[in-house]
C-alpha cells in the first residue's frame, strides 16, 4: 500500500489543515499516524515498515504528511527512487512569522521554557533552517517535475480554506468533496493547557472519532457551548504570555531570508510573494 501523495511540510504551515482536507475526502486515505518521518529519520526500517502505516481501504489515493522531509537533503532522492510518480504537497508561510510560531511550538511541547524569542533564536538553528525555502525547494524541483508539486500558502488557507482544499483535490484529480465545515477550524493554535489531563483525554477521544471518519461530528460536538466553554477555560494563549518578536531578531531574520525569498520567487516564476517579509526585502532593496 504505497502512498500517492506526500506532504513534506513546512512545519507550522497549515499541515494539520491539509491532513484534515485530505483525510476527510472519501477517495483519500490518511496514514496512521499523521507524521511517519520514514524518508528522513526512519529510512533504515524499510519499505514494508513504512507501508504498514497505510490503510488497506479501497481508495485510489493514500497520503502522509511529515514536515521533516522538506528540509532534509536526503529525502527528495529517496522518495523519487521509491516512487518517481509521487505527488508532493508543499505548504509555505512567511518565514519570519513561521520562525516565531516554531518558537511557541517548542514551548508548548515542553522542549524549552517560556522564554522570549530573542533567547530561543540562537539556541535553535531550526528556526532559520526550516525557512530557507529557496534552498530546499530547489532540491525538490531537481527530483520531481513541477506538475507533480503542489504549493499552497498558509496565508491563503487561512483566508479561504475551502477554496484551498478544492485546489488540492484538483491537483490529485479527485472530485470536489462536499464542503467540510471542519476545515474552517483553527488548528494547533499556540496555547498551553491549564489541566493537561483534560486536554489529553479529549484529544484521545477526538483521534478515535477521526479514525472512524467522524470528523464532522467531532467538529459539531466541539462547537456546543458547554464543550467550547471547557476548551476555552483550559487554554492559555502563549501569544499573550510570550512577548512579540523583538526588532533586532526580526531584522536578523529579514537579512537571512531575503535572498531565500528572491530564490523562491524565481523558482515559482512569481514577481511577488504574499508575505510582509517579502515586502520589507523589496523596500530595502529599492532604498
How does the major sheet shape up? 5 strands, parallel
Model regions low in confidence, pLDDT < 50 over at least 5 residues: none
**Radius of gyration, taken over Cα atoms and rounded to an integer in Å:** 19 Å
Global structural class = alpha/beta
Number of helices: 15
% residues in beta strands: 5-15%
Shape: globular
Number of strands: 7
Q: Tell me the distance between the termini.
A: 55 Å
Going across the major beta sheet, what is the strand order? 2-3-1-4-5
Topology readout:
Layout: E1 5-7, H1 15-23, E2 28-30, H2 46-51, E3 61-65, H3 68-71, H4 75-82, E4 87-92, H5 95-108, H6 117-120, H7 126-129, H8 133-143, E5 149-153, H9 154-159, H10 161-172, E6 191-193, H11 196-211, H12 215-222, H13 225-233, E7 235-237, H14 247-268, H15 276-286
Parallel strand pairs: 1-3, 1-4, 2-3, 4-5
Antiparallel strand pairs: 6-7
List keywords for this structure.
287 residues, alpha/beta, 10% strand
Task: Describe the fold and architecture.
By secondary structure, this protein is an alpha/beta fold. It has 15 helices and 7 strands. It has helices at residues 15-23, 46-51, 68-71, 75-82, 95-108, 117-120, 126-129, 133-143, 154-159, 161-172, 196-211, 215-222, 225-233, 247-268, 276-286, and strands spanning 5-7, 28-30, 61-65, 87-92, 149-153, 191-193, 235-237. The strands form 2 sheets. A 5-stranded parallel sheet has the order 2-3-1-4-5. Strands 6-7 form a two-stranded antiparallel ribbon. The model has no long low-confidence stretch (mean pLDDT 89).
Amino acid at each position: 500500500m504505497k502512498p500517492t501523495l506526500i506532504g513534506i511540510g513546512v512545519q507550522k504551515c497549515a499541515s494539520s489543515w491539509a491532513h484534515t482536507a485530505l483525510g476527510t475526502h472519501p477517495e483519500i486515505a490518511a496514514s496512521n499516524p499523521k507524521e511517519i518521518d520514514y524518508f528522513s529519520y526512519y529510512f533504515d526500517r524499510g519499505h514494508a515498515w513504512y507501508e504498514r502505516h497505510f490503510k488497506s481501504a479501497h481508495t485510489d489515493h493514500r497520503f502522509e504528511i511529515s514536515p521533516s522531509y522538506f528540509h532534509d537533503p536526503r529525502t527528495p532522492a529517496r522518495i523519487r527512487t521509491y516512487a518517481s510518480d509521487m505527488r508532493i504537497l508543499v505548504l509555505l508561510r512567511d518565514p519570519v512569522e513561521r520562525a516565531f510560531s516554531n518558537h511557541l511550538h517548542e514551548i508548548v511541547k515542553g522542549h524549552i521554557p517560556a522564554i522570549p524569542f530573542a533567547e530561543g533564536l540562537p539556541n535553535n538553528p531550526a528556526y532559520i533552517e526550516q525557512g530557507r525555502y529557496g534552498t530546499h525547494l530547489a532540491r525538490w524541483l531537481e527530483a520531481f517535475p513541477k506538475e507533480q508539486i503542489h504549493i499552497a500558502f498558509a496565508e491563503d488557507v487561512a483566508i479561504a480554506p475551502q477554496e484551498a482544499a478544492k485546489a488540492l483535490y484538483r491537483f490529485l484529480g479527485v472530485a470536489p468533496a462536499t464542503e467540510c465545515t471542519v476545515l474552517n477550524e483553527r488548528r494547533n493554535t499556540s496555547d498551553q493547557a491549564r489541566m493537561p489531563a483534560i486536554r489529553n483525554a479529549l484529544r484521545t477521544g477526538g483521534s478515535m472519532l477521526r479514525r472512524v471518519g467522524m470528523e464532522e461530528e467531532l467538529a459539531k460536538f466541539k462547537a456546543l457551548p458547554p464543550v467550547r466553554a471547557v476548551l476555552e477555560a483550559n487554554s492559555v494563549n502563549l501569544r499573550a504570555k510570550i512577548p512579540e518578536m523583538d526588532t533586532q531578531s526580526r531584522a536578523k531574520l529579514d537579512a537571512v531570508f531575503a535572498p531565500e525569498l528572491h530564490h523562491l520567487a524565481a523558482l515559482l516564476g512569481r514577481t511577488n510573494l504574499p508575505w510582509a517579509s517579502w515586502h520589507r526585502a523589496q523596500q530595502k532593496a529599492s532604498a
